[in-house]
């Protein structure tokens, strides 16, 4: 996808990867960039930095009615949506002992929000013969977020959903991408490191931590090539191959890393 003159919607647009995508898409010549997030004030501030093509909307991506209204309003204003980035996400930093409420929130934000986005934009995209969905799924969706069971399970589900959409609708003109970065310098990772969460420490120890702008660069390249898996950390592809070829060895390596991290207290 060439982003020039495209109409784009980004959920989770108040910061991190979402705001970096907005800035980069505007620089690429997008006709409109609609930023949607629960945090109305922060989203409006991001839209101001992006420029006149940006519009901020307060939206809960895990509420189907609000997502449906977001899509309908954007199509009324701009005539179409060319690219919908389902980018909102939440982590828990805990294992299966996470309360049911945390499991439910992870499911709703990390999976159902993608379902709601697809339901809302598919009719218009298919009627026009094309469009692009990009789901932010995380490297956890093809590997594992050690230390965060709800995040791992829901991100795997998100990749599976994206693949299902790609297979089902590609011949009708729909393109689908799953964005799967590893460590990114966002508040989510910073908060996890500050509290010593194992999941965040494993991420930080597993490879370079990219800036959101570097992720946005990878996204633009991936969209241009219409890639399904967009991997800002290229090493994730190698990890996935090793995991598939030798799952027992892969798990043994992660257990070794976890033992080392647990023996080393996190910095104060």
From TrEMBL:
It holds the Pfam family adh_short. Keywords: Oxidoreductase. Belongs to the short-chain dehydrogenases/reductases (SDR) family. SMART domains: PKS_KR. GO terms for molecular function: oxidoreductase activity. This is NADP-dependent 3-hydroxy acid dehydrogenase YdfG. Residues 6-182 form the Ketoreductase domain. PROSITE patterns: ADH_SHORT. Coiled coil: none annotated. It comes from Micromonospora matsumotoense.
């Amino acid at each position: 996808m060439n982003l020039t003159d495209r109409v784009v919607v980004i959920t989770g647009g108040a910061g991190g990867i979402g705001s970096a995508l907005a800035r980069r898409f505007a620089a690429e010549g997008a006709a409109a960039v609609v930023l949607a997030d629960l945090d109305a004030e922060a989203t409006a501030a991001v839209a101001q930095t992006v420029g006149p093509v940006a519009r901020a909307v307060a939206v809960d991506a895990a509420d189907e009615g609000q997502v449906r209204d977001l899509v309908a309003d954007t199509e009324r204003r701009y005539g179409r949506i060319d690219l919908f980035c389902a980018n909102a996400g939440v982590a828990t930093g805990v294992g299966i002992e996470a309360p049911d409420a945390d499991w439910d929130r992870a499911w709703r934000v990390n999976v159902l929000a993608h379902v709601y986005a697809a339901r809302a934009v598919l009719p218009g995209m298919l009627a026009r013969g094309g469009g692009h969905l990009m789901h932010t799924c995380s490297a956890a969706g093809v590997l594992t977020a050690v230390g965060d069971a709800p995040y791992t399970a829901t991100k795997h589900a998100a990749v599976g959903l994206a693949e299902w959409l790609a297979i089902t609708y590609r011949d009708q003109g729909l393109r689908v991408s799953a964005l799967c970065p590893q460590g990114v310098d966002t508040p989510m990772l910073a908060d996890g490191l500050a509290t010593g969460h194992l999941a965040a420490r494993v991420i930080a120890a597993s490879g370079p931590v990219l800036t959101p702008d570097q992720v946005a660069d990878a996204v633009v390249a991936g969209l241009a090539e219409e890639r399904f898996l967009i991997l800002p950390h290229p090493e994730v592809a190698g990890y996935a191959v090793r995991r598939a070829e030798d799952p027992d060895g892969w798990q043994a390596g992660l257990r070794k890393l976890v033992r080392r991290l647990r023996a080393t207290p996190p910095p104060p």
